[in-house]
Amino acid sequence: MVGSINEEERRLQAAEAGVRWRRWGPYLSERQWGTVREDPGQGGDTWGAFSHEQAHYRAYRWGEDGLAGISDDKQLLCLSVALWNERDPILKERLFGLTNSQGNHGEDVKECYYYLDATPTSSYLKMLYKYPQREFPYQDLVATNGARGKTEPEYELINTGVFDDNRYFDVFVEYAKGAPEDLLMQVTVHNRGPDEARLHVLPTLWFRHTWSWAGGGEQPRLRAEGGHPEVGAVVADHDQLGTRWLYADQPVPVLVTGNETDNERVFGSPNDSPYVKDGIERAVVHGENGKVNTGGSGTKAALHYVLTVPAEGSATIRLRLTDTQPEYAFGDFDQLMSARRGEADEFYAGVLAGDLSDDERMISRQALAGMLWSKQYYRLDMERWLTDHGSDPVLPDPGLRNHEWQHLISSDIISMPDKWEYPWFAAWDLAFHAIALSAVDMPFAKQQLKLLLDTRYLHPNGQLPAYEWNFSDVNPPVHAWASWFVYSMDKARTGRGDRVFLESTFQRLMRNFGWWLNRKDADDRNIFQGGFLGLDNIGVFDRSAPLPGGGRIDQADGTAWMSLFSQNLLQMAVELGRENPVYQEQALALLQNWAWIAAATNHVGPDQVGLWDEEDGFFYDVLRRPDGSSVPLKVRSVVGLMPLVAATVITAASRQEFPQLTESAVGFLEQHPALGAALPERGRQAHETGPLLLAMFNEERLRRILARMLDEEEFLGPHGIRAISRWHAEHPYVLDLEGQEYGVGYLPAESDTGMFGGNSNWRGPVWMPINIMLIRGLLQLYGYYGDGFTVECPTGAGQQRNLYQIANEISERLIGAFRRDTDGRRPVHGGEPLLQTDPHWRDLVLFYEYYHGDNGAGIGASHQTGWSGTVGVLPLLFRGRRKLDQSGWVPAPRAGETTPAQQAAVTR
Asked: What pLDDT, on the 0 to 100 scale, is given for residue 146?
């Protein structure tokens, strides 16, 4: 950071030294119901097996959810806020949304909430929830969305009219830490409406239910504590946590019940206790005071505030959860809260130093705050889960979901894609999360990359678990790229590389690489398959399902990902080889792997059909049919752009440092002349002394690909690279296969199919992770070709740009979706006037799953700050204090070294 170390950095250093500053954080899920973990059945109806309604009165098995909540890092004790506007039929304890079958585009949260600020150690956290004063339109949202088709827009909460006349509360929830075990909570309620309004605010403390399941522990206890005339208090006793006290700044009523399932409502059987999970709700909302144990103990307790907030006024409550009994809990409260806010400002002033506008700093800070708020405690023991479902975990029932992953045990804090829509880890998402997190929390970024490579997750056969719905599905293998990126960033900042991190990840990634080589190359031709590879409906068919008529698909993206995988492992091996020659041998083997893949990509087989289409100047997937015939699937999509991603420069200095490796590579090519002849021209330069470009194409093919990618009538949208060419809007691709037509057209917004649940669309929108990878590829290519290589950008505009400038242009278009334009509008907000003009909405930025291909409006999961959070670091890469050439993204020439383009200029 700029200048002396700030207080948040001191806390990060202390946390790495063992001081438990990270123990408490925003680790609650935002939706535990409707998950595979909590499905008690056989997986036929996961959403219906544990519904939003049941979440009010049924105890969870594996985790907890809440509104603006925090917990310890094992989620033993939880704290969040519940609200009631005196009109709703239920307490607002958790976020509401539609199930996959209820939404016209799949599951979707129907709430308005925003992550505003966060520090890496959660020393300061702030979020906003907008709560209507009118009755929350639960049934209207379900009915209206259910009546709409896939070609119609989704019906959102702001479309229902509940926010009309500003009749809503802005509920700001802030947390600050006085010490690792001393947590301050402040809730500030703003009445935005024209009339006085009442709001019940119930800060709620409860224990995750761990005691009645098989293998559970001793039941903990919460109780109200009297004798405090100025404050309210709850005492929490837990055999692992010890004792905690929750103090309220007023002597408000304490409502106590149990975090127990209401068996009468769920199963029709008697309850073991009259005090069950929905007891507080029934007491507050329905007046059933006998449902809470006011003078006794339990495992769930709420401090009941009733606030009367004047029109356009505000009210504030304060609480403190601590492991000590101070004489007065609120004597230094305001001072500490103010200090933590200031320290957060100081921390981000350092992170966001550079040539950024105030608007860009706000966007980046909210993006990074969303990343830090999206941490979640994820608990799943697959052996126990299989046992709970009546299966022998040694020989599990093959009809049970994830039955082959009985070794998996998770009890970790994990960065989630979206804590409501996707409250479970996803392998390739997590790699992109680490990229964004490395800007603010390098230790956590490293830990996240190492996590899925741990033996508790990594399958004995070497496969990474994909995501909860199907651990055996296949995501793009980007962990090696992310690990190398994070290592390089850390080395650039500190001046020394974390060899322990690099070596441990390399060894385990080699196991995963072996799995890919053995499982996803069907006929050992170094052309890879892989299935959907995270791109859902991108193809003509569901690429993870059996194909109509049989056969398989040779995938341009799967092959490109494997080329990149080998390149990244090669980079890691070369770095490790500086201290251990054994890794030089592995580097040579990886270089050979890359060469076989690159040659196979450029080779045309006996049927004259390969991945490269010379007529179109583009890469396509190829359908290989059982009769031996082949059909190129001519969809112009990011599948065909992925080879651009698989470009890496090995610098001349690295080659000179390891002459034996260079000599061995030359000898390998001499022994395999057919292989050398099939490589792109730059890949055959192993015998030269300059930089070596590892790529799947030559310069002529590169120019042809770029001409399409940079054409605004094809891929280059106003806010990034589209997933499918806009050319398909007028020219949809249609394949006639055995009398059945299959087609793909350009859809810039939502999907019109139910493929993969219908809640995402890869047929036109802009996806942040693919754009990030394309920027990476362009910068590597720039590191090789330098300033002398230029193309038109945009295509046909008559303006020549080098590859660095093109990468920057794409970055600026991505950021432009979030920035205010010259009219003061943010494209990400779409056409909703409230979001564009109202001062209480317009600067609240959401980071969506993907973005409209023509106008940049946010679409899909609305809080997927996960990989969309990478937009927070894009301004830093090009205009931050630490620019690209200092971060490992651009292989800048070392002293006395020139690029091939510069050498050519000298020759001329």
From this structure: 94
Nearest to 352 by CA among 881, 768, 904, 896: 881
Helix (H, G, I), strand (E, B) or coil at 93: coil
Residue 497 contacts residue 575 (beta carbons within 8 Å): yes
Residue 473 amino acid letter: D
List, for residues 111-136, the tens digit of each pLDDT value: 999 999 999 999 999 999 999 999 99
Which residue, 571, 595, 564, 594, is CA-closest to 658? 571
Kind and range of the H or E run holding 317:
strand 314-322
**Structure confidence at residue 669 (pLDDT):** 87
Provide the 8-state DSSP code for 99: -
Report the candidate in 70, 82, 75, 93 with the shortest Cα–Cα distance to residue 183.
Answer: 70
What pLDDT does residue 897 have?
46
296 phi/psi in degrees, rounded to 5: -115, -150
Question: Two tokens at 488?
Answer: 């390089």
Give phi and psi for 677, each to the nearest 5: -65, -25
Which of 437, 439, 324 is closest to 373 using CA atoms? 437
d(CA 488, CA 73): 29
Strand intervals (E) in 356-400: 375-381
Biggest alpha carbon–alpha carbon distance for the chain: 91
75 vs 63: CA distance, rounded Å: 7
Q: Specify the 3-state DSSP secondary structure of 493.
A: helix
Exposed / middle / buried, residue 770 (Cβ in 10 Å: 0-12, 13-18, 19+) = buried
Is residue 201 within 8 Å of residue 83, measured between CB atoms?
A: yes
Q: Residue 308: beta bridge partners?
A: 198
Instruction: Measure CA 477 to chain center.
Output: 15
Task: Note the pTM of the prediction, 2 decimals.
Answer: 0.95
The pLDDT of residue 652: 86
The one-character DSSP state at 464 is: P
Q: For residue 105, give the nearest of 747, 542, 734, 715 by alpha carbon.
A: 747
Asked if the bond preceding 137 is cis, omega within 30° of 0, the reply is no
Is there a contact between 145 and 159 (Cβ–Cβ < 8 Å)?
Answer: no
Q: How far is 234 from 322, CA to CA, in rounded Å?
A: 11
Nearest to 298 by CA among 283, 319, 316: 283
Question: Residue 758 has what DSSP assignment?
Answer: G
Q: Is 559 helix (H, G, I), strand (E, B) or coil?
A: helix
Contact in structure between 195 and 311 (CB atoms under 8 Å): yes
| CB neighbours of residue 700 within 10 Å | 10
Q: Are 242 and 323 in contact (CB under 8 A)?
A: yes
378 token code pair: 């994820």
CA 9 to chain CA centroid, nearest Å: 24
List Cβ neighbours of 242 (8 Å cut-off, separation of 6 or more). 323
Give 711's contacts (C-beta < 8 A, 6+ positions apart): 794, 795, 796
8 A C-beta contact, residue 643 and residue 660? no
Q: Which tokens belong to 623?
A: 């359908």
**What 8-state DSSP symbol labels residue 387?**
H
Q: Which residues of the chain, if any, have pLDDT below 50?
A: 1-3, 683-684, 893-897, 900-908
d(CA 578, CA 179): 42
- Using the 8-state DSSP alphabet, how is residue 22 labeled? T
What pLDDT sits at residue 2? 36
DSSP assigned state of 166: G
